[in-house]
Amino acid sequence: LPMAFRDVNARRHIGLQQLSALASTGRSFLGPVKSHKFIVDEITNQSTLICSAVRLVESLDLTSAAGQLLNETIQAQNKEFKTGMSTLLFLVGAWSSAVVECLQQNVPVPAIVSVMSEGLNSCCERVQCLQIPIHDVKKELCSSRVRAKAFESKTGQVGRDGLTDPWNLLCFQRDTSATEKAIPINSCSHQGDDCDFNKFLVSPLAGFGSVAPVVKAVGDKSSSALSGSGVTASSCITRKLTHSRHFSTLGKSHFASQRGNFQGHLSGPSADGCGCCGLGCLAVALSHGNQTSVKLLQSIAAYQQERAECSGPSQVNVAEIVTCCVLGLPEGYSCVSPGFVTLVSPEQATVIKHFADKPLRVLLVDGDLTEGYRHLGFNRPSNVRTILEHPNPQGGRAGDVWLSRMSDILMSFQVNLVLVKGSVCKNVMERCIASRILVIGSVARDVLCAFGAATGAQAVTYLSQLNASSVGNGAWAELWKTGDGRAVDLGELLPARIGAGGIPLLTAVLTTALPSKAQLLEDQFWTSLYRLHHALKDGKVFPGGGAVELLCLSHIQALTEHPGLPGNDRAVRELPSPWLAEYKSIVLQALARGWRRYLSVLLCNTAKASSELEAGASVDHHLQKAAACGSPSAYILEEFRRGGVLRSGCEPFPDQVTELKVCDNVAAKTEAWRRALDLVLLVLQTDAEIITGPRGNQILNSPVSSEFMFL
After folding, report:
1. Is 3-132+541-648+658-705 assigned to CATH 1.10.1040.10?
2. Where in the chain is the domain with CATH 1.10.560.10?
3. Is the pLDDT assigned to residue 95 strictly greater than 80?
4. Which of 298, 290, 335 is CA-nearest to residue 314?
5. Domain 321-373+399-537 has what CATH class?
6. Residue 593 and residue 573: Cα distance in Å, rounded?
7. pLDDT tens for residues 447-498?
């Protein structure tokens, strides 16, 4: 073994140790039963509740180079997928520790880089057989819905005392006997392990049923499956129920369909809507137990599907969705409202009340509404100098002139509503309120585009560019109301709803009585939304609950124990140098330890194991059974169907309801794996170059070693 490699292994790898320590702080974020953390701001002493890797790394003091690389990696994953960050963070820690163990056994860096990268590539290829096409998922979920309804009407049983646990808002139901008869599967009969998913299509989905009808008032004949307004209701209560020990009297206004009326709340997906049933149930499978987000996603999917009139493939347009957090109301009042819901001051609310039902002329500003704002790329002329004719030491004269000019422009074009992408000057806001002009700042670009398309308004950068063709017509504004028609007066800020005829914009109104929980609810909603969006974009999903990681672990063990098996990657089996080939087994075992730790912690976080030791024993038990079966993928699919690999933590109802099955995104999951390993190997190689110096760097870049360099 070259001395440079021994020097690397003999010294401490600070970067890898830092990665492992930082990643260990987020291990409680895995699985549906998460442990939340409170982040306290040292300056303001305000606390925020978090449950995501993104918010965690934003709150940590990441001054080291390894910490900054970790932050950039997680932010890149969040920017592209909005999901998979917790998996990425955990695997970074697990594989960092595994690499350190390899170094302690004098494994050279090129061997670690080559074998680990090729091993992960082999895993990504191996798990492709577990991908479930979206069309088949929705088809099976809708058929399960029919079976569940038939079973409910046959038995007349809907849960404990006719009621569900309020936390199990959306639970799947199925006729166990009917499902077993319809799906004859012998998972151990496929010795060839051809991974043809069509043979096991119903296996991972047999536990799925449908979302049962929600509470409806007597006489309500709407076909809504889930209401987007009013207090949260359980989905397994009979239709005739009008009183509940969990809720007060349930009036019709809480649950009736209110799409298109002045209150602006959407009902849930129609039971007979084209594709809505499948999208709604798919949203549940991808929500990982987040009930509030599921209710909102089902309303969004139903609304967008209805607008598309079932033409073309089912998609969720993320650009047409915004969020608004309303503090002071229970979480049960969260709903989806057409149009743009935002928070306004009491003075702005007075202007909105003055508008009543009047049509408004709207102006869109693509920038800041301040005197000193200049667009990106603006260059001041080098040969022009501005001189004030009458300087005023008291200040404010030039600003008053600009303010009066901007006010005159708005008044001359009879503008009632101004939507500004950036910030708004305080003086401009006060002058506009006095003139009964509503100005809303910090509006997203997608919202401006939606209003432009609906009203015909054209965005301007400066008010001086305003002309008659830039002003749109047909907008309206009102104060947002709850599901029972009550206006919300929370003191400092009030929710207002702004819209226009034919605007496709939807706002997910997230309510909570805890200010520290607002960011958490918003993050959970966007995560669930993007999971559904990417699932439809990919056209396929993975079975969740650790099924994919278990197959990876089984595959790596097969590569370690039987290096000559067909299907093993040539780069892993045939290393060019004999002195490097002997380390293949050690490195693959280190890669497998990462998967094993992931599954063990996932089992502990789902409360299915009391300790990591017990969880590890359960994982070993499944690995042995998978190996004895002869077809690991067939065994895993069958166990996933039964909920026996890793269960979700949503307890079933006796005899009728099975536990919630979950699905994962394909591209987001595999990309999180790759990003995690890339980061670990990058830090490993950087540490090695720092430790060995110029001499070691020459050896690492030698022709033999260069074949194994991954990054």
Report:
1. no
2. 3-132+541-648+658-705
3. yes
4. 298
5. alpha beta
6. 20
7. 999 999 999 999 999 999 999 999 999 999 999 988 776 777 776 899 999 9
